[in-house]
Amino acid sequence: MGVGLAAPVDPRTGLIATPGLLRGWDGVPVAEELGSRLHRPVFVDNEANLGALGEYRMGAAQGVRQAAYLRLSHGVGAGLIVDGRVYRGGSGKAGEIGHLTLDEHGLVCRAATAAAWKPWWEPPRWPRSSPAATAR
């Protein structure tokens, strides 16, 4: 069984790679916990990575070796396919574009990144306070 989390997952440990993103889940081995309760093997990864993998195997990215999957939902993220494999980077944060700084004096996201995409995109602020709306 596969489970997509709305947070980066450290590929070495299977733990959420950025503490505080999913409150109450820091240090929880999600795959082990679910696997023991469901009596099945469980694979856990970031939901954007799994979206990219799905497109690579069965969707728009079939037949290519490099692809980027952009996920815009409750946050902003990307899943990357490099040489036919999901690319996570050393800490599982390779596609976390929602935490790139847009304006060093702007809103701060839960991961404490100054003026990242994520706080502009989160539902109570969108679209009224999105960068495009405030540029008008």
Automatic annotation (TrEMBL):
<dbReference type="InterPro" id="IPR000600">
    <property type="entry name" value="ROK"/>
</dbReference>
<comment type="similarity">
    <text>Belongs to the ROK (NagC/XylR) family.</text>
</comment>
<protein>
    <submittedName>
        <fullName>ROK family protein</fullName>
    </submittedName>
</protein>
<dbReference type="InterPro" id="IPR043129">
    <property type="entry name" value="ATPase_NBD"/>
</dbReference>
<dbReference type="Pfam" id="PF00480">
    <property type="entry name" value="ROK"/>
</dbReference>
<dbReference type="InterPro" id="IPR049874">
    <property type="entry name" value="ROK_cs"/>
</dbReference>
